[in-house]
Backbone:
């Protein structure tokens, strides 16, 4: 499974923090790969649609996530405050992986 | 009265004097009501603050930990948020006679300790949300009072011009928040800072030691706030010739806001004195002006500032504002 994860928005635009993170689960430990694949399934990722822009909100973060799994590929843009819990868990995991450093 | 006694005549004259005095007083009140902004007509200022603690979860609003009138809690993020809400309320009331975010005494709510290592502050349409930062790149976001003023001003904009959060209108939305956030900081400083001596930085103190930068943005010198191996280089332009066309960041709302930010700073410095005395009045009048549409572009906004400057300060005011915009490449005909 390959995932591209990009942070959008926030209080300021920092070019260095908006570079996409690319993850290939084959490059991760078996434990990490299992956790990510499990979270992708739990969030019904391939059925998710883009978030609706929150009315009157500003400086919020949103994320663009693309998951490729075999023949399937799907991209969603998610506003964090509008994401459901299962997707929030995946977002938190991806953010943590990004904070650990580049994996590509 | 000709036929009355001296006593009757005296009483009648006293009655006439009272009636005249009452008419004068009533006329003065009516004149004041016409001149005052709508918020003042809503009554006395209603400063009502509440700070909530999300306890490092993403559950909003969290537990209420400090309400209006309660003393400091000892939790820096809670107390900074409370004080920053108050400083923002004071700037709007004292200088613009605006009674809170909605102009009608709305409670000002903030949630602190949001998420884990959360590097952001945002306005969710109803309240402010503050993260504690990751401790590596960023400190807690309540540390800078201008950031608090910035977030609440998004609420004010939502209740007034309601500028679309995309492209140039979004960059104006962002810029107005920086303008008022910066004025909150200058107004809350002891002693108060005038336009010449203010640093015009947004988020000073937010970057952790070791990060190469002084703040998140510089209104006076856009593009110079940071240049760091991890964060990258501050991408803000200071002039229309460097305008950034992009689909990122909602069409560059935090990038191209550097241009109107610079125009406001130019104006405030050229006028001298405190920024809220004249430049701030022009910008507030513009934000609340029905001639400003949600989809307004930089030129539309600039035109309305010029009209308001003319109305408030005559031809000299008009010239100053026109020149401030011209210096960033926006030439109002």
Residues:
């Amino acid at each position: 499974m390959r995932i591209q994860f990009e942070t959008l928005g926030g209080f300021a635009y920092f070019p260095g923090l908006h570079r996409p993170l690319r993850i290939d689960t084959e490059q991760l430990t078996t434990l990490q790969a299992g956790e990510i694949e499990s979270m992708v399934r739990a969030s019904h990722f391939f059925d998710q649609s883009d978030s609706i822009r929150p009315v009157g909100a500003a400086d919020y973060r949103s994320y663009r996530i693309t998951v490729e799994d075999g023949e399937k590929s799907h991209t969603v843009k998610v506003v964090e405050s509008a994401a459901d819990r299962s997707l929030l868990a995946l977002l938190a995991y991806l953010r943590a992986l990004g904070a650990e450093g580049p994996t590509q | 009265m000709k036929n009355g006694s001296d006593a009757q005549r005296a009483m009648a004259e006293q009655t006439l004097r009272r009636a005249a005095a009452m008419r004068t007083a009533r006329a003065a009140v009516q004149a004041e009501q016409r001149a005052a902004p709508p918020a003042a007509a809503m009554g006395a200022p209603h400063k009502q603050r509440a700070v909530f603690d999300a306890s490092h979860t993403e559950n909003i609003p969290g537990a209420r930990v400090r309400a209006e009138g309660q003393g400091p809690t000892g939790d820096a993020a809670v107390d900074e948020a409370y004080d920053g809400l108050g400083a923002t309320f004071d700037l709007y009331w004292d200088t613009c006679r605006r009674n809170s975010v909605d102009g009608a005494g709305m409670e000002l709510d903030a949630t602190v300790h949001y998420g884990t290592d959360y590097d952001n502050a945002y306005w969710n349409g109803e309240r402010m949300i503050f993260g504690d930062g990751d401790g590596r790149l960023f400190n807690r976001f309540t540390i800078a009072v201008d950031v608090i003023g910035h977030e609440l001003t998004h609420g004010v904009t939502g209740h007034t011009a309601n500028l679309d959060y995309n492209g140039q209108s979004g960059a104006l939305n962002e810029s107005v928040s920086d303008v008022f956030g910066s004025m909150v900081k200058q107004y809350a400083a002891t002693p108060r800072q005038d336009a010449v001596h203010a640093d015009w930085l947004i988020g000073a103190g937010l970057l952790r030691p070791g990060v190469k930068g002084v703040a998140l943005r510089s209104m006076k010198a856009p593009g110079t706030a940071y240049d760091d191996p991890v964060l990258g280089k501050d991408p803000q332009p200071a002039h229309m010739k460097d305008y950034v066309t992009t689909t990122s960041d909602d069409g560059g709302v935090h990038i191209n806001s550097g241009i109107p930010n610079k125009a406001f700073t130019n104006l405030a410095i050229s006028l001298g004195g405190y920024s809220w005395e004249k430049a701030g009045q022009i910008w507030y009048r513009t934000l609340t002006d029905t001639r400003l549409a949600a989809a307004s572009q930089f030129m539309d906004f600039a035109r309305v500032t010029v009209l308001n400057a003319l109305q408030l300060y005559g031809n000299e005011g008009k010239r100053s504002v026109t020149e401030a915009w011209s210096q960033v490449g926006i030439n109002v005909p």
